[in-house]
UniProtKB/TrEMBL annotation:
Pfam families: PDZ_6. It comes from the Bacteria. This is PDZ domain-containing protein. Residues 287-365 form the PDZ domain. InterPro entries: PDZ (IPR001478), PDZ_6 (IPR041489), PDZ_sf (IPR036034). It comes from Sporosarcina oncorhynchi. Keywords: Membrane, Transmembrane, Transmembrane helix. The chain crosses the membrane at residues 12-37, 58-76, 82-100, 107-123, 143-162, 191-212, 218-237, 249-269, 275-294.
Length: 389
C-alpha cells in the first residue's frame, strides 16, 4: 500500500509539471529574459542581469504565497469546479503567449472563467464533453461564493509579490523625451507561478492516482488537486523610482483583494453579490493600472540628462558602482577631481587613476556627497554604470 501511495504522489507531481501552464510559464519566463537583455543592450550595449534571471525567479519568489493560499483554500474548504480551473488555465496560457502581462492579473482569469461558464450555459447548454456539460455547474450555488473569495485571495498574493518583488529587477532603457533628448525609463515585467492546491468535488484525481488523498463530506467526495497558477505584472516607471512606485501599487492591489474577499463572503447569503465582487475586482484592477500609467506619463523623467554631470540609469551587480552604493537617478558631477558631462568624459576621468576612484555625486535629494572606491584589475572599467547619454 505504501508503495502505491508513493507512486500516486509521483504521478501527481508529474501531472503538475506536465501541465501546459507550467511548461508555457517556463518558456515565457525565458522569453522575458531574452527580450529584456536585448532591450538593455540596445540602450547601453550591456545587460544588467543574466538572461535566465526571470526563469530562475518564476517559482522561487512565489512558493510562500502559494503555500499560504493552499492552506487557506483547502483549510477553509473553498471548493471549485474542475471546469473553472480548466478555463483559468487556458486563459493564463493565452495571456502568457501574448507577452502582454498587464492583462495577466489572476482576477481577470478568475472572472473571465466564471462568466465564460455562464456564457456557455446560455449559448452552448447542450455541449457535452466526456459526460461534462456547462449546465452541471450551479453558478448561483457554492461556486458563487468560493470563486470570488479565491480571486480576492489571489489579488492579495499579487499585491504582496508586486510590493516585495516587482522593483528588484526593474530594467532601465533609454527613450526620447518631448525635447528630443534621451532619458531612462524603468520597466518591470515579471511572471510568477504559484502551485496551489484546490479542493475539487468528485473523483477528479483518482483517474490518475487511485490512492490520492480524498475526503468525504456527506455524499460528496473531494479531491486535492495541485494546479499551477500564474500572476503576470508589467508596468513602466518614468516619473517615480521603481522601489517607491511598485510597493504603493502592490498595496493598492492587496487592498482591492481584501475588498473582493469581503464582498465575496456575502455571497453566502446572496449569491449574486459574488458576481458583483468579481466585477468590482476586475474594474478595480484595471483602474489601478490606468491611474498609475497616466500618472507616470504626465510626470517628468526622474533620470533625464542634465547640463552638468552624468545621470545614472542602472548599476551592474557586484560592480564598483554597486559597492559605492550608487543608485539610479543620481548624478555624477566629477571623477578624480575632473568635471564630467557625458559618458566619454566619465570614462576618461576614471582612467586618470586606475587604482583609486573619487566621485562627487548629487543624490536624489539634491545633496552633494563625496565617495571613493579602490579599483582592482578585474573590476568593470566603467565602474559598472549604465548612464543616460
Amino acid at each position: 500500500m505504501s508503495e502505491q501511495v508513493l507512486m500516486d504522489l509521483v504521478k501527481a507531481v508529474a501531472l503538475f509539471f506536465l501541465n501546459p501552464v507550467w511548461l508555457v510559464a517556463v518558456v515565457a519566463a525565458v522569453g522575458l529574459g531574452y527580450f529584456r537583455v536585448k532591450r538593455e543592450r540596445r540602450s547601453f550595449h550591456v545587460r544588467l542581469h543574466p538572461g535566465l534571471t526571470e526563469m530562475k525567479r518564476v517559482l522561487a519568489e512565489s512558493w510562500l504565497p502559494a503555500l499560504v493560499l493552499s492552506v487557506l483554500i483547502s483549510g477553509v474548504g473553498l471548493t471549485v469546479d474542475a471546469s473553472w480551473l480548466v478555463l483559468v488555465s487556458a486563459l493564463a496560457i493565452v495571456s502568457m503567449m501574448t507577452f502582454y502581462y498587464q492583462s495577466a492579473s489572476p482576477i481577470y482569469f478568475a472572472a473571465l472563467a466564471f462568466f465564460g461558464l455562464y456564457a456557455m450555459q446560455q449559448f452552448a447548454g447542450d455541449f457535452n464533453f466526456r459526460g461534462w456539460s456547462p449546465a452541471d455547474v450551479d453558478l448561483f450555488g457554492e461556486i458563487a461564493l468560493t470563486v470570488p473569495v479565491i480571486a480576492g485571495l489571489l489579488l492579495i498574493a499579487e499585491g504582496y509579490l508586486v510590493r516585495k518583488k516587482a522593483a528588484a529587477y526593474a530594467s532601465p532603457f533609454l527613450t526620447k523625451t518631448n525635447r528630443g533628448l534621451r532619458a531612462a525609463t524603468f520597466l518591470s515585467k515579471r511572471l510568477w507561478l504559484l502551485p496551489v492546491v484546490f479542493l475539487v468535488p468528485g473523483d477528479f484525481m483518482t483517474a490518475f492516482a487511485p490512492y490520492w488523498p480524498q475526503f468525504t463530506l456527506g455524499a460528496t467526495a473531494f479531491s486535492f488537486v495541485p494546479v499551477p497558477l500564474i500572476i503576470g505584472f508589467s508596468q513602466v516607471a518614468r516619473s517615480s523610482y521603481p522601489e517607491l512606485l511598485f510597493p504603493k501599487m502592490g498595496q493598492a492591489i492587496g487592498s482591492l483583494g481584501i475588498i473582493v474577499v469581503v464582498f465575496g463572503a456575502f455571497a453566502w447569503w446572496m449569491p449574486i453579490v459574488g458576481w458583483v465582487a468579481l466585477v468590482i475586482g476586475v474594474i478595480g484592477r484595471m483602474m489601478v493600472t490606468i491611474i498609475v500609467a497616466v500618472k507616470e506619463r504626465k510626470g517628468g523623467f526622474i533620470a533625464a540628462p542634465q547640463s552638468a554631470g552624468v545621470v545614472i540609469a542602472g548599476i551592474l551587480p557586484e560592480s564598483p558602482g554597486a559597492k559605492l552604493g550608487l543608485v539610479p537617478g543620481e548624478c555624477i558631477r566629477s571623477v578624480n577631481g575632473i568635471q564630467v558631462s557625458n559618458e566619454k568624459e566619465l570614462y576618461d576621468a576614471i582612467q586618470v587613476n586606475a587604482a583609486h576612484c573619487r566621485l562627487q555625486v548629487i543624490g536624489r535629494d539634491g545633496e552633494v556627497r563625496l565617495m571613493q572606491q579602490v579599483l582592482f584589475r578585474h573590476d568593470h572599467h566603467r565602474l559598472g554604470l549604465l548612464v543616460v547619454r
